[in-house]
Amino acid sequence: MFWLYGGGLNGGTIFNTMSNGSYLAAHDVVYVSANYRLGKLGFLYGGNGSTAPGNVGLYDQVMALKWIRENIHSFGGDRDQITVFGESAGSRSISALIVSPETKGLFRRVIMESGANLHYKGRQQHTTDEALVESQTIAKALNCSEDYESNEMLDCLRKRDPKDFSKFQQQFTFPLEGTDFLPISIQQAFQEAKYNKDLDIMAGVNRNEGSALALGGFPQLHHNITDKDFDDMVIKTNTSYHGLELQQVRQFYLKEVNKNHSSDELRQAFYAFFGDIHVKCPTYLTAKNYAAKSSSKNGVYMYELTYESKFAKIMGCDEKTMGICHGSELEFVFGLPLWVDKIYPKTHTQLDVDFSLYVMKLWTDFAKYGKPDAQWPQIFDKSLINIKDLNPTNTSRVLDNPFAGDCDDFWITYYFNLC
């Protein structure tokens, strides 16, 4: 099981005690992780064919996968049963690996936790022309040549202190399409059948993905907000996501808000909007389309986490105001309830411990067998959409599709041209 950490492709490390993999490894799997380059150091673009072809952070992931295939037998692993799993930007990376021509045959299964590189159908999130201009802007700021057609600009940038690039960080970095690593979008890859068709996929999201992510990018959410603030935040979101129609967003996400539009209701509405566009709908629609386009021999499973422990509040997610936040599944995936109470006493119950053991078994059984458990139906089964309710109070419950209204109805035409 090869782990890709999250962090917006701007931050993260394998040296995180919260995701060290030791408890997963106790379930008869080999756990592997690798650092990959991030931010401008990992995604600076100097043109196709240059020594900075963009997406070098993703090339790092591929290099790690090649190393695993060549060497994992020495650690008791099976090179033909590699599962890549990741959260947030790690999951977004996985969706890019699925459609990249650089990855054929490198892995057998994937687990995508809260993220996919699916975006507006009308244009890339970040075009290669925009990426080149951005590289030239950085070069100018660091007193380097802006001539990307020669090696002068890149040679100069490589001599700069890596810390100099931190001032150009953004909240999120996105994989760059139109490049050697990602020639086409996920939509085009599905349409033209140019993707890895031999995978089993498990994907999922947490019920309230937008809260923590939105609070990190929109400081006004920490205070009382108005109708105008809601509009301004949607407009700001459009600078990265493109193609948003403000009035349509308002009509859909404010339809349940009372006429006075209280600050709390507006905040929750924006959380829902941001979670849908950034995490929920890309993850769900990627898994759903993969299942629809692929052979029946490929198992595709989907979950929604609807539970969290007291520990989540310590980590900055207050369930009463933020719900089941982005990243809330990680403590259960990595077995934190089994040991973290030594540091944070009385934050986990026996239910949390049992749930974590259950989740780790789901994840590792999927990695070993391609199916998480006998009670979890595939996303398409008997003409129904099946979403597993990941909750310890009822481990056999399958939800009525929680993404039907938002993703299947409202957002589907944003992402795909429907025939």
UniProtKB/TrEMBL annotation:
Keywords: Disulfide bond, Glycoprotein, Hydrolase, Serine esterase
One GO BP annotation of this record: acetylcholine catabolic process
Entry's Gene Ontology cellular component terms: extracellular space; plasma membrane
Enzyme Commission code(s) on record: 3.1.1.-
GO molecular function terms listed in the Swiss-Prot or TrEMBL record: acetylcholinesterase activity
Pfam families for this protein: COesterase
Carboxylesterase type B domain ranges (all copies): 1-383
Catalytic reaction list: acetylcholine + H2O = choline + acetate + H(+)
SUPFAM superfamilies linked: alpha/beta-Hydrolases (SSF53474)
Signal peptide: none
Active site (UniProt): 88 (acyl-ester intermediate), 209 (charge relay system), 326 (charge relay system)
Domain of life: Eukaryota
Family label: Belongs to the type-B carboxylesterase/lipase family.
Name the UniProt record assigns to this protein: Carboxylic ester hydrolase
Biological classification of the source: Eukaryota, Metazoa, Ecdysozoa, Arthropoda, Chelicerata
